């Protein structure tokens, strides 16, 4: 990564700097004549994601590494660094299992960008007719009008399948949403996931994996809207002329039902069905690190999923710099440097999400560089214009179912 200036640095261009660092792009403010040649492609990482294809627990400890928790009963789990995408440890990472409502994270990734949060919609009986028996509900009622943002809070906090059905209808329909979710999973490199029911309701053939859920969680934390919703602990949900309080069903976020709130918790999404058992995507921030864990179907039942996630989060923070990665959540990189500025390295920066309704005030992770060349090009144009302005002024060049 090379940035050249003809004179004093142009200030107030953090977006360009962060995006350039994330993408590995060469940015020159003075035109192509004095730009350096594009940087050569980076060597392949020193770890192999093929380790994640192996059954059992995979970890590469250094001499001073803490031991991986031994009392875990989950059929599958994974610990990763959300900033770098490095997988620190995993157990049956690619085992295909029912995801329950953690699949709503993929639903949000597919549908959030397509729906304006301020749009109001009046719900019909038809939109609620296909909600499965025993589903968790936020209380969406036919005939009532809701903002899209209200419905998303119903999805993230109450895991409301009724809210999912209405949003899917607004998104073009159930089948179209399924296709979008499948396409999004493929685009993210989540190849273990097969979507049948966007709300996570048990359905034949519907599966995901601890690896894929981590990919969805990391991608979701890169979206400010997603990060804001998933970190909200409590909110009000409208019902005609009045509203009532709702609370996030993720106990690590709320500290409910005897589960202590995890320090630095961000979210992301929990789930439960009789077929899937308990599932969880959880992320927490401490110091300069964000650890992301996924837990699928602990065999001891009850609220064990939260305590096993707690153990894995604790281990992830303690293991920083003491283990070598066993894989990566990032898609495979091209062997050659791409033309232009479309290369993504997947580095990250932190921003605080918008004010949530009584939710977490911890910084949500926004992955700078999970974008396209258009972002970089737009930044270059903006900064060139700023540079020109500075030059004129100074005279120099210049993101029951739970």
From TrEMBL:
<keyword id="KW-1133">Transmembrane helix</keyword>
<keyword id="KW-0472">Membrane</keyword>
<feature type="region of interest" description="Disordered">
    <location>
        <begin position="40"/>
        <end position="67"/>
    </location>
</feature>
<keyword id="KW-0645">Protease</keyword>
<dbReference type="InterPro" id="IPR001967">
    <property type="entry name" value="Peptidase_S11_N"/>
</dbReference>
<feature type="region of interest" description="Disordered">
    <location>
        <begin position="334"/>
        <end position="353"/>
    </location>
</feature>
<keyword id="KW-0732">Signal</keyword>
<feature type="transmembrane region" description="Helical">
    <location>
        <begin position="362"/>
        <end position="383"/>
    </location>
</feature>
<protein>
    <submittedName>
        <fullName>D-alanyl-D-alanine carboxypeptidase</fullName>
    </submittedName>
</protein>
<dbReference type="GO" id="GO:0004180">
    <property type="term" value="F:carboxypeptidase activity"/>
</dbReference>
<dbReference type="InterPro" id="IPR012338">
    <property type="entry name" value="Beta-lactam/transpept-like"/>
</dbReference>
<feature type="signal peptide">
    <location>
        <begin position="1"/>
        <end position="35"/>
    </location>
</feature>
<feature type="domain" description="Peptidase S11 D-alanyl-D-alanine carboxypeptidase A N-terminal">
    <location>
        <begin position="69"/>
        <end position="298"/>
    </location>
</feature>
<dbReference type="Pfam" id="PF00768">
    <property type="entry name" value="Peptidase_S11"/>
</dbReference>
<keyword id="KW-0812">Transmembrane</keyword>
<keyword id="KW-0121">Carboxypeptidase</keyword>
<keyword id="KW-0378">Hydrolase</keyword>
């Amino acid at each position: 990564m090379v940035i050249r200036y003809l004179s004093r640095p142009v200030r107030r261009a953090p977006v360009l700097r962060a995006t350039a660092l994330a993408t590995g792009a060469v940015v020159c403010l003075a035109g192509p004549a004095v730009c350096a040649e594009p940087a050569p492609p980076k060597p392949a990482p020193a770890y192999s994601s093929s380790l994640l294809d192996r059954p059992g627990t995979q970890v590469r400890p250094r001499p001073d590494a803490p031991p991986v928790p031994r009392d875990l009963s989950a059929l599958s789990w994974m610990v990763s660094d959300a900033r770098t995408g490095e997988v620190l440890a995993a157990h049956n990472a690619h085992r295909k299992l029912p995801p329950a409502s953690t699949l709503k994270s993929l639903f949000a990734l597919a549908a959030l960008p397509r729906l304006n949060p301020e749009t109001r919609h009046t719900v019909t009986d038809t939109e609620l007719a296909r909600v499965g028996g025993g589903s968790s509900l936020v209380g969406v009622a036919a005939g009532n009008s809701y903002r899209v943002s209200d419905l998303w809070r119903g999805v993230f906090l109450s895991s409301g399948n009724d809210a999912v059905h209405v949003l899917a209808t607004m998104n073009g329909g159930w089948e179209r949403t399924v296709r979008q979710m499948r396409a999004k999973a493929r685009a993210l490199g989540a190849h273990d996931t097969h979507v049948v029911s966007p709300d996570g309701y048990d359905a034949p053939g519907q599966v995901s994996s601890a690896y894929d859920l981590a990919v969805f969680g990391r991608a979701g934390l890169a979206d400010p809207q997603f990060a804001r919703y998933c970190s909200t602990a409590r909110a009000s949900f409208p019902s005609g002329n009045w509203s009532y309080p709702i609370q996030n069903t993720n106990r690590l976020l709320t500290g409910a039902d005897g589960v202590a709130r995890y320090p630095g918790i961000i979210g992301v999404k929990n789930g439960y069905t009789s077929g899937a058992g308990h599932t969880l995507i959880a992320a927490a921030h401490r110091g300069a690190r964000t650890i992301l864990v996924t837990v699928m179907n602990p065999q001891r039942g009850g609220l064990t999923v939260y305590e096993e996630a707690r153990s894995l989060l604790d281990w992830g923070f303690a293991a920083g710099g003491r283990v070598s990665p066993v894989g990566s959540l990032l898609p495979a990189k091209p062997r050659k440097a791409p033309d232009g500025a479309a290369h993504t390295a997947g580095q990250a920066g932190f921003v605080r999400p918008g004010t949530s309704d009584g939710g977490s005030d911890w910084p949500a992770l926004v992955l700078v560089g999970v974008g396209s060349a258009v972002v970089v090009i737009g930044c270059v144009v903006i900064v060139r214009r700023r540079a020109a302005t500075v030059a004129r002024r100074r005279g120099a060049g210049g993101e029951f179912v739970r």
